[in-house]
Amino acid sequence: MKYSFTLLCIVLIVSACGSSHVANKGGRSLDYSSMSTLADALRVQSGVQVVGSAHNTKVAIRGVNTSKSSTSETFTASPTGGGPVQRQTTVLKDVEPLFLVDGTIVGNSYQQANRVVNVQDIVSIRVLKSYSETNAFGEQGKNGVIKITTRQGATVQAK
Q1: Is the CATH number of domain 20-158 2.170.130?
Q2: What are the residues facing 100 on neighbouring strands?
Q3: Burial class (CB in 10 A: 0-12, 13-18, 19+), 97
Q4: 127, 119, 120: which is closest to 143 by C-alpha?
Q5: Closest by alpha carbon to 114, among 130, 96, 94?
Q6: How far apart, in Å, are the Cα atoms of 117 and each of 37, 148, 149, 158?
Q7: How far, in Å, CA of 69 to CA of 93, rounded?
Q8: Rg (CA), the chain
Q9: Backbone phi, then psi, for 104, in 5-degree steps?
Q10: Cα–Cα distance measured from residue 108 to residue 147, given in angstroms and rounded to the nearest whole number
Q11: pLDDT in tens, the chain (159 residues)
């Protein structure tokens, strides 16, 4: 009886701690619960490039097929009323990584991943870019892999 009570207390403590959404990455804590979009969560990952916003968001893993991205110069009106302001714009062409959510392949599109992930539920994000890490995913993983684990997936993996 005493053993069961101790085990129950440990399970309750672990599950309470697991709901804080804090992951340790390179000595720093990442609190995904304070982020409003999946793009925000990806922007803080080392080696990930996020370009655009809303429905035009594109994601690439730095160092993996980034030769397909191009940079161009655009000019916009100055907010102070002066001449045009030059701005550099990056366009990512067919370089999005494969997204895995709780071990399930979602696809090679940020929009697909964004539809199935609630950023408040993210426990961890892992970026895979070496050949040895992505080879198991074949052609789909050629641009790298972003593995997202949510609270639901962490619970299933713990069993």
Answers
A1: yes
A2: 105, 147
A3: buried
A4: 127
A5: 96
A6: 9, 9, 9, 20
A7: 6
A8: 20
A9: -100, 130
A10: 12
A11: 554 444 334 333 333 343 333 444 454 557 888 899 999 999 999 999 998 888 889 899 988 865 554 555 555 555 666 666 666 555 556 789 999 999 999 999 999 999 999 999 999 999 999 999 999 999 999 999 999 999 988 777 666
H runs (alpha helix) in the chain: 2-18, 38-43, 110-116, 131-134, 151-158
**Residue 19: alpha-carbon gap to chain centroid:** 18
DSSP the chain: -HHHHHHHHHHHHHHHHHTT-EEEETTEEEEGGG-SSHHHHHHTSTTEEEES-GGG-EEEETTSSGGGEEEEEEEE--TTSSS-EEEEEEEE-S-PPEEEETTEEEES-HHHHHHH--GGGEEEEEEE-SHHHHGGGGGGGTT-EEEEEEHHHHHHHH-
Written as one letter, the residue type at 87 is R
The values of phi and psi at residue 108, to 5°, are -100, 45
